[in-house]
Amino acid sequence: MLASIGTQTWWSETAWQRGTGDALGREAFLRLLVTELKNQNPLDPVDNREFVAQLAQFSALEQMQGVNRRLDEILGAQQAMSEQLAALAAILAAGGRTAAAEG
């Protein structure tokens, strides 16, 4: 979703994620940015602060997506470990054996 408010342009995370993958979102963003720069009014160019703000949004969104991917990997590993522990507990319970620790 691209929303223009005054002279500022904002990109939402849902729009960033649309398409077949992250590369398409980045490519679309960069294409849009270049098109905006090519077609700007030469008498009223994009303010440097706005341009830097757009690039900062782009960078922050990429970082958030990286963190999200890593958290998904951690969650997957945690779920796999939980399943393995449950299977081990079931094996131990089925064997009817108990273990005692001295201490």
Would you write up a description of this structure?
The chain has one domain (2-92). Strands 1-2 form a two-stranded antiparallel sheet. Strand 1 (2-5) and strand 2 form a beta hairpin. The model is unreliable at 1-17 (pLDDT under 50). It is built from 3 helices and 2 strands. It is mostly helical and 103 residues long.
Count of β-strands: 2
The coarse silhouette is: rod-shaped
DSSP helix fraction: 55-70%
Order of helices and strands: EEHHH
Radius of gyration: 25 Å
Strand percent estimate:
5-15%
**Alpha-carbon distance between the termini?**
62 Å
Number of helices: 3
Unreliable runs: 1-17
Task: Give a short account of the largest sheet.
Answer: 2 strands, antiparallel
Mean pLDDT: 76
Class of secondary structure makeup: mainly alpha
Query: How many discrete domains?
Result: 1
Placed side by side, the strands forming the largest sheet appear as: 1-2
Characteristic terms for this protein:
103 residues; mainly alpha; two-stranded antiparallel ribbon; 2 strands; 68% helix; disordered N terminus
Chain-wise SSE layout:
Elements: E1 2-5, E2 8-11, H1 13-17, H2 22-38, H3 48-95
Antiparallel strand pairs: 1-2
Overview in brief:
The chain has 103 residues and is mostly helical.
